[in-house]
Amino acid sequence: MTEKPLIPAPHRLIVVEGPIGVGKTSLARRLARSFGSELILEQADENPFLERFYKNPRSAALQTQLFFLFQRTRQLEDIRQHDLFDTVRVADYLLDKDKLFAQLTLDEEEFALYEQVYARLAVDAPVPDLVIYLQAPVDILRERIERRGIKYEQNIEKNYLERLQETYARFFHAYDASPLLIVNAAQADFVNNDHDYGQLLEQVIRTRRGRHYYNPLKSAV
């Protein structure tokens, strides 16, 4: 894998989103290197409740969700405070997706509490200049999760991935807050294959407004 020289960033804030295993963090890292931009990651490994959640979702859903909410809002507050420097940024999460997970994992009473906390935080998240939404079938997500070998992720059930994928699809079907590039990531390798990445990079640079779909051919490598 080789990196092209740094190129001018076409956007000030690019967000890469999609379900676990689809490759959003790896793609965000590579885009940040290409643009020479600041990288903002959700840092899931810092959440002390996440392993417990994947083993038994009902036992730690609320703690897991609130930790992520506080973590993400702190990061976004830092972005707001440093906007004077007009830094280019690439992130691997969209704050709006926090409520997606909350609705998916919390019961009615827990979600009501979550919404109260969210409202108290009065989050003023920056609006991305481009959102890249990566999609892949559940079987491929499971294969990639298994391949990367994070022990506690091996407890993720297929049913949870199916519901998560459906939740993402509904959310982005209605999403219109930013330009949106919907990418079929099932067959392409945007991290290790320079051709695949280069083709996607061209799409990212060209996408300035509206909703677009990118369906790359199966990688030759």
UniProtKB/TrEMBL annotation:
Gene3D superfamilies per record: P-loop containing nucleotide triphosphate hydrolases (3.40.50.300)
Record protein name field: Deoxyguanosine kinase
GO CC aspect terms: cytoplasm
Location of the Deoxynucleoside kinase domain: 14-204
Active site: D92
Taxonomy, superkingdom: Bacteria
Record-linked Pfam families: dNK
Annotated keywords: ATP-binding, Kinase, Nucleotide-binding, Transferase
InterPro entries: DCK/DGK (IPR002624), Deoxyribonucleoside_kinase (IPR050566), DNK_dom (IPR031314), P-loop_NTPase (IPR027417)
GO molecular function, one term: ATP binding
